[in-house]
Amino acid sequence: MKEQPLLCGLAQSADDRAEPILRSGNSNCGGCGMSNGLNMLSRAAGTRNVQVVIPACCGIVTAGQYPYSAFGAPVVASTFASSAAVASGLAQIAKINGDDTRVICWAGDGGTYDIGMATLSAAAERNEDVLYICYDNEIYGNTGGQRSSATPIGATTTTTPAGKDIDKKDVMGIMAAHRIPYCASVSIADPADGHRKMQRALDTEGFRFLHLLSPCPTGWKSEPAEGIDLVRLAIRSGLYPIYEVVNGFDYTINETPDLSRAALEKYFSLQGRFRKNAINLDQIQAMVQRNWDRLKLHAEVNS
Ligand SMILES: Cc1ncc(C[n+]2csc(CCOP(=O)(O)OP(=O)(O)O)c2C)c(N)n1
Ligand code: SF4
Ligand SMILES: [Mg+2]
Questions:
Q1: Domain parsing of the chain, residue ranges
Q2: Which ligand is located closest to the Cα atom of residue 214?
Q3: Ligand 1 pocket check: which of 36, 57, 62, 220 to mutate, most ligand atoms within 8 Å of Cβ?
Q4: Lateral strand order in the sheet of 182-186
Q5: What CATH number labels 33-302?
Q6: Whose C-alpha lies nearest to ligand 2, atom 6?
Q7: Are residues 264 and 281 in contact, defined by beta-carbon separation less than 8 angstroms?
Q8: 149-192 residue pLDDT tens
Q9: CA 178 → CA 64, 181, 214, 235, 278, distances in Å?
């Protein structure tokens, strides 16, 4: 008699996945960076079978209303605090079943930097076979735009009406410190680099973490058509460093910024969330420089 696979409650056909992970007709706002990220992931995954765990966030609303779903892959909606733990269980079951399904957590910054950090850290420390992707729109977007610990200094949100007065957490630094096999920041403005990193992350065994700066026209009060330009400006100005870290020590910088003041000014001026009186560009430029000096030191140690 054929041995039955251990059930995990997710319908998954034995055939390769034929649908994109994100179908058209989803409920994302126009110009949402999350859509670019999910499309990038879908292309990198190809026809591989994947299971996706999504905590409370815009990403779980994306699917639309029951009984329809804009997701072309099995998805578990988890609580904020448990997504990395749920994904750990699914990955363990796939392993027991000898199944090559890749398990992916797709979470916002609120679910990653803040509420899900405990189980994320625990799964990373256990080196579970999970790919964790954080799309970072720098706010609690789904509930109307409250500040998270990913909100950058100077940004006005519903809970920081005068502008946030401390800078965002260094989530890449935190995850690299877990010495996981692979950790990378991904530019949704660079499809080739994004594709390579997502494929590498899908192929690698053990815990992987990807960080995507994800423009949110609704929360950033920016033009939907300017999201990709905003990512480019964040990279050029040094605000969003593009690099990868292997096993916690091996740092590679993938894009060197010109750290230009012009790029920094343009980045802030294109978003209504940054009011002139709430930002201090000299302070921000000094902070960016300090972060870069530290990152370069990490990368130089490898060379
Ligand atoms: C424990 C808990 N607290 C609060 C909420 C309400 N809530 C649902 S989505 C959300 C915002 C999520 O923010 P983020 O993870 O950054 O994703 P985004 O909405 O920005 O895509 C909040 C606060 C919840 N579902 N569970
Ligand atoms: S609120 Fe922001 S993150 Fe959420 S769907 Fe709209 S653009 Fe995307
Ligand atoms: Mg968010």
A1: 33-302
A2: 2
A3: 57
A4: 75-78, 50-55, 102-108, 130-136, 208-213, 182-186, 242-246, 250-255
A5: 3.40.50.970
A6: 29
A7: yes
A8: 999 999 999 999 999 999 999 999 999 999 999 999 999 999 99
A9: 35, 9, 24, 25, 35
